[in-house]
Amino acid sequence: MSDRYELNKNLAQMLKGGVIMDVSSPEQAKIAEAAGACAVMALERIPADIRAAGGVSRMSDPTMIRGIQKAVSIPVMAKVRIGHIAEAQILQAIEIDYIDESEVLSPADDTYHIDKTCFDVPFVCGAKDLGEALRRISEGASMIRTKGEPGTGDVIQAVRHMRLIMSEMRRLQSMRDDELYQAAKEHRCDYDLVKYVHDNGKLPVVNFAAGGIATPADAALMMLLGAEGVFVGSGIFKSGNPAKRAAAIVKAVTNYRDPKMLAELSEDLGEAMVGINEQEIALLMAERGK
Amino acid sequence: MKIGVLALQGAFAEHLSSLSRLGVTGVELRQRADITPDLDGLVLPGGESTVMGKLLRELDMFAPLKTMIQGGMPVFSTCAGLILLAARADNQEKTYFEVMDITVRRNAYGRQLGSFSTQAEFAGIGVIPMIFIRAPYISAVGPQAQILAVVDGHIVAARQDAMLCTAFHPELSSDLRVHDYFLRTVAGRAAGNAA
Fold first, then answer.
1. pTM score of the predicted model
2. Residue A50 pLDDT
3. Any B CB within 8 A of A11 CB
4. Which among B171, B181, B158 is positioned nearest to B46, based on CA atoms?
């Protein structure tokens, strides 16, 4: 493992217990930072709008990302299309703090992900199950998040993905050593990573929840299921009172085990994003890039 | 010995693990009710100082912790924690507890591409691994504080009475000597109080 990879995993460790918020302007970035975001994700259109607008969605304009980098002191992340090596090189050139190789954008490659070991900047990738998470880690991802279903405000898929990843890890932990070789084949990933999970009961990188989180209770639910922090995309700036909701979600992540505090945090937040149920959506972003 | 580790956001689990490997119980401080009089020391971890500073205020933890630190409670702070202790900051307006006679420069090494690890001398301990993640450094120390480590001409660790701060992350390495150094301060104070 290179020194750089370790430093990149370390940055994700510093984000733990925090909320990473999608923002599409320097003004929104400042609101997010003031509300207690531990990092922001700079993108031109939040997932709910990408979903509504349709068409091909791509990496954001570097000018827009730079504007956000100037506006806040916390880490700034940005998204590239799955497999889009050149977009990732561009974001590295503007010294982004974390690249999200994301299914929210239109995939550039339906077979190969980016070889993230060739980069100095860190990558976070989405996963629906343990095999996907470990494949992304083999490719050099230094942080994992659930895919969930972005832009819906429906938490069901993030829950499904987090529960599956956690239960698959518990299953590996209970296996005999000689069963791990077959498990690696079933998960279609490196034996060494399967062995790591067997020995340690967790991923070798930080694991966040993402996709469909809209309320303090949603964020607390993901923490109760084992997430080490949460990404909130459309849930904040598609709601009635973004600053108040953002601050409430930050506190809910810190005190997810205190229902009384969660009750207070859930009061008078104004309207939540309207959302779309999973049965109503035509496009499953989570099915992109496995 | 009972050490309270501020657990609002960031790498608090890593500190709890380092303490546990030294045989010491750490407790998470997530809200005001967690701050109990039986604490022997405090750890302020790495993470984002903007997040911790805000939550400390809003969860009513700021005043009781500041009183404890000013009363001589030993405190060990890393990275963002160092920013929380500093009396002055030279590239941002915000300061927090303002208890250590140091000036901090936040994100002093730039963005994540500026993060690095090295080995350097730490006064009284020897050469130790130092991991810097979007780290600050100490641009100046006042007469009350004492410099403990310097890397590339920048101050990266300091002490003032029972307060210890590092710009790097001892909790991310397997080397436990800085935590052990802190625990000796805690033990020394406990012995002093008993006598």
1. 0.96
2. 85
3. yes
4. B171
